[in-house]
Amino acid sequence: MRIAISTGGGDAPGLNAVIRAAVLSARNRGWDVLGSKRGYAGLLGDDDVVPLTGESVRGIMAHGGTILRTTNRGSPFAYPVRNADGSWSEVDRSDEIMENARNLGIDALISIGGDGSLAIAQRLVDKGMRIVGVPKTIDNDVSGTVMTFGFDTAVNTAIEAIDKLHTTAESHDRVMVLEVMGRDAGFIALYAGIAGTADVILVPEIPWAMEKVCEKIRARDAAGRRFSIVVVAEGVTMPSGDVGVMGESLPGQMKRVGGVADTIAREIQERTGKETRSLVLGHLQRGGSPTGYDRLLATRFGGAAVEAVAAKKWGHMVALQSPHIVTIPIVEVLKESKRVEPDHDVVRTARAVGISFGD
Amino acid sequence: MRIAISTGGGDAPGLNAVIRAAVLSARNRGWDVLGSKRGYAGLLGDDDVVPLTGESVRGIMAHGGTILRTTNRGSPFAYPVRNADGSWSEVDRSDEIMENARNLGIDALISIGGDGSLAIAQRLVDKGMRIVGVPKTIDNDVSGTVMTFGFDTAVNTAIEAIDKLHTTAESHDRVMVLEVMGRDAGFIALYAGIAGTADVILVPEIPWAMEKVCEKIRARDAAGRRFSIVVVAEGVTMPSGDVGVMGESLPGQMKRVGGVADTIAREIQERTGKETRSLVLGHLQRGGSPTGYDRLLATRFGGAAVEAVAAKKWGHMVALQSPHIVTIPIVEVLKESKRVEPDHDVVRTARAVGISFGD
Amino acid sequence: MRIAISTGGGDAPGLNAVIRAAVLSARNRGWDVLGSKRGYAGLLGDDDVVPLTGESVRGIMAHGGTILRTTNRGSPFAYPVRNADGSWSEVDRSDEIMENARNLGIDALISIGGDGSLAIAQRLVDKGMRIVGVPKTIDNDVSGTVMTFGFDTAVNTAIEAIDKLHTTAESHDRVMVLEVMGRDAGFIALYAGIAGTADVILVPEIPWAMEKVCEKIRARDAAGRRFSIVVVAEGVTMPSGDVGVMGESLPGQMKRVGGVADTIAREIQERTGKETRSLVLGHLQRGGSPTGYDRLLATRFGGAAVEAVAAKKWGHMVALQSPHIVTIPIVEVLKESKRVEPDHDVVRTARAVGISFGD
Amino acid sequence: MRIAISTGGGDAPGLNAVIRAAVLSARNRGWDVLGSKRGYAGLLGDDDVVPLTGESVRGIMAHGGTILRTTNRGSPFAYPVRNADGSWSEVDRSDEIMENARNLGIDALISIGGDGSLAIAQRLVDKGMRIVGVPKTIDNDVSGTVMTFGFDTAVNTAIEAIDKLHTTAESHDRVMVLEVMGRDAGFIALYAGIAGTADVILVPEIPWAMEKVCEKIRARDAAGRRFSIVVVAEGVTMPSGDVGVMGESLPGQMKRVGGVADTIAREIQERTGKETRSLVLGHLQRGGSPTGYDRLLATRFGGAAVEAVAAKKWGHMVALQSPHIVTIPIVEVLKESKRVEPDHDVVRTARAVGISFGD
User: Fold this and answer.
1) Suppose D111 and one of A178, C227, D121, D232 were both cysteines; which one would form an S-S bond, judging by CB atoms 3.0 to 4.6 Å apart?
2) B223 CB contacts (<8 Å, ≥6 apart)?
3) pTM of the model as a whole
């Protein structure tokens, strides 16, 4: 038996722990393991395919990143190719992957990636390739699993940032706006905001208005709490009617340097008169040594992926349905993404302890 | 409406977050909140009962310990009283609690504690007191809930310790034996051992033999891995036949200073000839600022406890059944404790990545 | 004896530790201690003057920020006052401070602040006020002292950020540009860059050129190191002749949102063709719990400040001249600021281990 | 030019950073570098001598331990050899080292170690070997240098432990006794105790009495502070007349399992009636990722050691005399060890903020 492993999309703390567990579990069964470098690039012959042994994965449990490298570019079904005139086209190179995999004697592939990677995996499965998926999203927005690895680390990184901003905000009577990851789902903002005792949390799933945010800040001020912490998911947008007092339409603003946090901070300062600063946490959330939770979950995913290969669960993804790891069909997972439910007990408790969602 | 809150048993990171969320949620509903200091001592008139407001819980989210203090001593049903001759008797003071609670106008009590505290709560409920429970155990051994707060922090503290021992073990070719909490359940040892890449994990739920542990260490040595990390739950005991080569019966040994880790370390050194050191992590696991996971879970428990009071769920305990917080009857919880299941996927994966359980 | 304490300028981890040590030391001598809120605002009657006791400073050692609050605005010698027509003027309110201090029975003031605060303190000393200074600068740019508190914490925060960016940079073959504090002095960039194994460090004290930076990145790429980490002090500017290939004059650029890091990142990406991202660490460097080093240094400063008051060292500042705390005249300190010396052994070693300074 | 590097004695965070800086600096000069594994064992032919290149030291800056391994056993001048009858003798193998070094073409040796290693280095220098020393002691007890690497990390680890014990001590009204490293010098106990706001600090340099310790604890109790934290250096002993109330002579006690902390804890509990627990921090202090301070200092030491080799400073040790790294003759260093000076400003400030030294 010979399997291959690939990692695609943005990196997340715990990727190496998945790789390590999968390699050790597979070697333990007497299997060969290959690693495709930079997503499918290795299998496409554009990068290396390397043998993975116990030695290869020694000491990587606690390391962020992925020893297989990763990339955000290039579905094999629409692979960018530069034309003679310098322009770009997209070509379907999925057959190449399958042929190369056959030539390398690969019996099955463990594909670790997010929604995009899982969709590609499913299309390859449909063509006959034997793939087991491992969900990877720092935003925790893949459905079918209670949690994905990397999320807990990102949340703790965000909490640490809030803790730090807290003391300086309080010392200077300032409003601090912190932008965290979450293009479509506000889980990081929600969890870190509650745990960091933010005063306002803005997420894509709950419509909000700038004036409500300012009301909360003013109410705190009136009660002698002269600082406020606002945590914002990067993916928030404003209702179309809400034009900034600075004469700017906010949604369009959001794309520019400094991000949504900067825009919101300037609006707050303008409207409330309070000194307001913003910070974009950015890539810090993807990096670093995974927390215990993420190391364990990632290890369980890696071990379960090898078990799924042994059980020939092609087209399935490993998932946490507490307290067990299960496998579910990728097609089921792709039907919908996970989002913050506005009436979930987490949101309800956040409101109960006094957090405003700007609504 | 006036409620009281008490914390009993050993402290756990997140206790203050539960108190904070319960106080803020209750005050938000317009309720009065009192805190009984040092478990039931406050309600027994042996310590203070203090009003709890938003001001009382400001800034405590990230703090370990409990602002209400706690105690391991004294069920109100068998309260220690010193006699005139200096000896001790136990008396039932449960009626006093109920009378004092009535006199203080307390409509309901939120009792935060472990198995022992929950059993007491149930007995008071049986007598007519209105109580909602919040489970607290750093060992994660309360059934009915996927997780308890404090456990994640303890696991991360243990992982950090393993990470630190790792480098020194490797530099000196040593065996390191780390004893972590877990009197009856080996969850901390199991989770921290996997995440910290221990070589051997010993838990109360899986019978083990010293010779198997030494075999693993010798096998690593033979493979050029001249150091090993052994993680031991404090509650492990040895099969009766396994007498130490040093002429000592091990089970009896376990009670003495230095704990089980010291005994096991000396056996390993004697049997393998390898320099072996032990460390008891002890109270470090109870302390410190809670992780993001624990801050969030504790906040959810606190908020849900107030909702449970509003819903008159007397004799119920809040619990995590991912992804939701639910309430379950305390009598159900008390029927059995949670233990590591030897065939759980976590154990299976641990074995697959090469960890020995000494069996 | 009655003394007052004030904190001015940006906050720095360790401020509370100074206050705590000064209060406890002074109380221990039987002195009264007052705290002037928000710099001199308290003493000017625009904010509170509060009594400080052992109780006031309990538990604040590990807390970032300052319990006395602080402000960047308003020298008492040129205090902003709003005129009837809405415009602003500046008035000299230094006499008010002295009169209020007299009225409050204040015998001496401990002023904790940076260059600006020390200069103000000296002017008040010149008018007859009895002041002892405690240097505070997160940039470590006050002369006369080997180190200032807050700097070590800021450096560790920056290192953690670099560590995190490292794994994601390596996984994605990216260049990462991290902007850290240091308006005039590059100590944070230098120390954190070395400790975080940055590839390029840019500081205000060493002239650099964009092309040299790109050369280093290209050389690493050619050697198979397909990622690079660039650490930049916020105060760097480019030689006037070095116009960006994007048609922008860089020095002017530096002021805009996203800061110098963003500009440099875009230039690197344009010139090398490598995917490049930037991050501004910003206020995270001011916040958080002080490191052991900063807690100790700040405590020593606080204790020494009280000793200096007892010794009537008016117009002196406490300073670390390892291994001792000494006092030096503020006028000496104000003569010049501390800067990174380009031929210091730290810089020499950085070059020896392969770090480029872009020169 | 070809140099060798060895690490001896207990490991300390920063060892790898020294090795890394020395290797990169030396390679940068075009030199060959060899590593002697396990102290002098490599050079004695009992272990490997390995080539060290840029690749060998990649990514080790942040890692605890030493890639060269280390050992506490065996001066080459009195090397343990097992006789035919199983007993041990000691033989002088120093000539072998010199001959092997010559055969390997080694021009100079960088020896990283503590007092013992430096003394051995000096004896080899006296025989004509060309050696530059780098001081290594986690206890900070080598004279001639303001600081040694590893100490700052150990202090921060101890502070973290105190912070954790604090919350649990306070919640349970307990006395906690924490034993930290420091066989002859109490720097770790002193620095960590102050920064962690301990109530009592016991160091070998300051004679103390158990009754004075108990007085402090009782005084706090009387003032409503019902918990206390006692930090003890492992090397403390009691004045000969002070026999424990439990009928035990304390000095002899100190050797047994559980260490001095356990003995002191039991005495405190016996004498004050307060529940008292002890914890031995042990090897946790040697492990883990070095702090920023240690990474920088170790890097400077490594770079300076190569400069010292280039300058032919045989028999010299690199040292920090802030703000510069200098070289000083090892014979000077060996004349006396560094100890806590009882009248140093650090001790004076500790007393001023209310810490008892048990005297």
Assistant:
1) D121
2) none
3) 0.95
